[in-house]
Amino acid sequence: KTHHHTWNISYQYKSLDCFEKLAVTINGESPGPTIRATQGDTVVVTVHNKLETENTAIHWHGIRQHNSPWADGTAGVTQCPILPGETFTYRFVVDRPGTYMYHAHYGMQRVAGLDGMLIVSVPEGVVEPFVYDAEHTVLLMDWWNKTVYDQAVGLSSPSFKFVGEPQSLLINGKGVFNCSRLGNGGGGACSMTRPECGWPTLFTAVPGRTYRLRIGSLTSLSSLSFEIEGHTMTVVEADGYYVRPTVVKNLFIYSGETYSVLVTADQDPSRNYWAASHIVSRDPNKTAPGRAIFSYARNDPRALPPTTPPAGPAWDDTGSRINQSNLFVALPGHVEPPPARADRRLLLLNTQNWIGGHLKWAINGVSLSFPATPYLVAMKQGLRSEFDQIPPPDSYDYKNYDISRPPVTNGTVSHPVYRLAIGSVVDLVLQNTIQSNLGFNVSHTHPWHLHGHDMWVLGYGEGKFDPEADGGKLNMRNPVMKNTVVLHPQGWTAVRFRADNPGVWLFHCHLESHVYMGMGVVFEAGVELVPRLPASIIGCGRTKGHHY
Ligand SMILES: O=C1O[C@H]([C@@H](O)CO)C(O)=C1O
């Protein structure tokens, strides 16, 4: 079956958290509509860019794009951006059931609200390894008063202005920013009585029934804890793969991740309950929490619960987050075990440094900038001047490196690419550092997202990864597969994947400001196997005026 969607992308004034600002919308809405399809279906989305003065591109997050690497929607990697006034058609097959998302992948545009969910059901007759009565979606976001332009210019200007912590957290596109924090109420820009903002009702539960919540996070900076007052959640799916059912009170969810949880309406049905999202890992005190109403039938679905909303867990308790990451393992028999060994291992060290007068993130000393000629086109057509010919380092000097005292270095900003043998098994070990070189004692959380593939998550550790000592301790028995994996502060994360999807693929920190500051790498595998590229992805950079 083929599902056709036609989307007009435009700026609209929105007051999602009561503060009015410009948001990038799909057919006037932010977040956009939920796409629903069944495994094996084809999704066709015709995108009309009506932004007037801004390009766009849309990424289908978690869809591997087998046989359609040009439909991944990553401007600068898999396509030329869609110019204002132009139309681009994405066509791809959803080959795995699961909970996925979509969002802008041009500059930092996701910050402006171009996002939504993409749900792929199992075909009729296929039984899932758990039961529920009905399902609902929960999309989590963070939201700023400042526009994406302010944020991007701040990050790239020599004086460097960080985006700062968000003003509010949104649940299904709604939140509440306290307008009284803005002296004169924001001069009319902020009003807490607008119908667009407020605490949304998640859904109305019938007592005794069990619900599947498909939860996704597309935050631009924040790591979150999500909970439902008085109820536990049983996690059954992560990023499209079944996990061993795991009961949690707080679900830690990082940008780019999705989870399905089962919730049974087993509490006093005469009242409603709070659902809440809270910031963890960064200072939560400047941000209004996300809240929503978990309603029981027969109550007014908008009636605020009679209790004080949950306070959320301690934001700086990294240990509890590492523990929860370690809890998730594959549901036996439902996830292919990893290959026993890897053909190649990349140790990827992140650092933040001043490079050429700008504050940048770099991986093994190289900071990624997106080229004007998309990698896929440049590599397929042999336009060698458009990407680095010297590959970035596979490792760093891990024997002598002190991750708590990274040296002040001069990295480079360029267009790096790791060329992987098609079909080879690759280990990636992400290594975090403490930013003492910049004069502060922090280490951030970085959720890393791999395009075009899923990864076996082999382990998380604290401190520095030691290939000899830690290599043997990895989970080779029942690791989960994911497309987004978290790197905890001061720690490391090890994953394995099979580079079996011909094309060019981004692997990056899913925080908008961090990837904008260069925190990503590019993988190429089997680009020569990619069939003739569609003309619609070509026409920018060195490919201007070319007809292939
Ligand atoms: O990328 C970032 O930059 C700032 C800080 O490291 C430098 O100001 C911050 O908190 C980030 O997450």
Automatic annotation (TrEMBL):
Keywords: Copper, Disulfide bond, Metal-binding, Oxidoreductase, Repeat, Secreted, Signal. The keyword Acetylation does not apply. Its cofactor is Cu cation. InterPro entries: Cu-oxidase-like_N (IPR011707), Cu-oxidase_2nd (IPR001117), Cu-oxidase_C (IPR011706), Cu-oxidase_fam (IPR045087), Cu_oxidase_CS (IPR033138), Cu_oxidase_Cu_BS (IPR002355), CuRO_3_AAO (IPR034267), L-ascorbate_oxidase_pln (IPR017760). One of its GO terms (molecular function) is copper ion binding. Its EC number is 1.10.3.3. It catalyses: 4 L-ascorbate + O2 = 4 monodehydro-L-ascorbate radical + 2 H2O. Belongs to the multicopper oxidase family. Dimer. This is L-ascorbate oxidase. It comes from Zizania palustris. The lineage of its organism: Eukaryota, Viridiplantae, Streptophyta, Embryophyta, Tracheophyta.
